[in-house]
């Protein structure tokens, strides 16, 4: 079942799917220096843990009490400060969602591992 952010105005309603939000989040994460990628199989486990479908690999979006809550599962490149990369992910996702959908989200970043260059 797809969830939607709904905005009502005199001309009708605007509904934005959680899948659309997940695509915006994924694009914002990929722009952050130090992120090696989104987690694979663990993303499904994270979604199961929260009882929600996995809308995009490593990204889970929920709408709770009028808030957009985003959980991300990332891999950080070896040699980067993990906490600094996670904070940059939070800032990037927050900025993207504020500008594209008009909501300030709660962004939880879960670092599932460190990726080494080949």
What does this structure look like?
With 118 residues, the protein is of the alpha+beta class. It has one domain: Cation efflux protein, cytoplasmic domain (Alpha-Beta Plaits, 2-Layer Sandwich). It contains three helices and six strands. The chain has helices at residues 18-30, 41-50, 82-101; strands at residues 4-9, 12-17, 35-38, 59-64, 67-77, 106-115. Strands 3, 4, 5 and 6 form a four-stranded mixed β-sheet that branches. The termini are far apart. The mean pLDDT is 85.
CATH superfamily: Cation efflux protein, cytoplasmic domain
What is the succession of H and E elements? EEHEHEEHE
Unreliable spans are: none
Structural domain tally: 1
CATH architecture: 2-Layer Sandwich
Percentage of residues assigned to helices: 25-40%
CATH hierarchy, class: Alpha Beta
Measured between the Cα atoms of the first and last residue, the distance is 39 Å
Structural class determined from secondary elements: alpha+beta
Shape descriptor reads: elongated
The percent range for strand residues is 35-45%
- Give the overall pLDDT as a whole number: 85
Contiguous helical run count: 3
Number of strands: 6
Descriptors:
118 residues, alpha+beta, Alpha-Beta Plaits, 4-stranded mixed sheet, two-stranded antiparallel sheet, 6 strands, elongated
